[in-house]
Amino acid sequence: xxxxxxxxxGPTAVGKTRLSIEIAKRFNGEIIxxxxxxxxxxxxxxxxxxKPEEREGIPHYMIDTHAPDASFSVADxxxxxxxxxxxxxxxxxxxxxxxxxxxxxxxxxxxxxxxPQKRNxxxxxxxxxxxxxxxxxxxxxxxxxxxxxxxEKIHPNNHRRVIxxxxxxxxxxxxxxxxxxxxxxxxxxxxxxxGLEMERPLLYERxxxxxxxxxxxxxxxxxxxxxxxxxxxxxxxxxxxYKELVAYFNQExxxxxxxxxxxxxxxxxxxxxxxWFKNKMDVDWYQVEPESIDEKFRMILEDLAGxxxxx
Length: 311
Description:
By secondary structure, this protein is of the alpha/beta class. It has 13 helices and six strands. The protein is 53% helix and 10% strand. The protein starts with a strand and ends with a helix.
């Protein structure tokens, strides 16, 4: 029998964290953060990590597992989450994935192979020499022309993944994005995707309020500490809320402009995520409003009871 897994998706500020706690309490679950930014230590405010006192004694995983200067890929995420699903299930608990980007959730729930074939050492060595001679910008620009979808997911400083994507294309004529899309197959899990959505004007208002709250909690100080630690060019600092403030510290924007950019980029990210999930995955969507969220969560719990009855 396939392992049962619940995944909760939706934009920031819509209530995913609170719902994950309610599901875990009701169905004896443990929670895996699906947000690839929450693995980074010292990045608490901008990633909206759940505080220890808010967890109500429920174990949470994939939080504070990596130093801010570490690289972390979708393949790493897949491996960690699939191992955690086995671990949590073996304890007789229900794995609940809370949040995360569409690609990361899809990779965790399906058996994507991120190493499709043996490396072509000759091509790899040539690309590494080109990196040394011309720098990463030349290689990254080439990848962006060949496979813009994959380039968007790879930070330029992650030289290994840039070279791997180019090497795959030169060796097979297939982009990494195309390869991954072809691998969509039956999942090894019996999963249910719960999606929370909200009317756009209200959602965007809540996103703006969330950013203001982060600023009041000390986001500028959090990012400045990382910036002063020499981490400005790290992969982790490309997350929304971090890259805009790095630009502010570099005097590219005023603080007011940086805050406006964080809000704008957060809204745009929410819109892209809706598009991804609605086009690529089978999600049970629930419309939520702040004044009726308790009632909607009760409905979700009742729906899940039917799904989990054979667990």
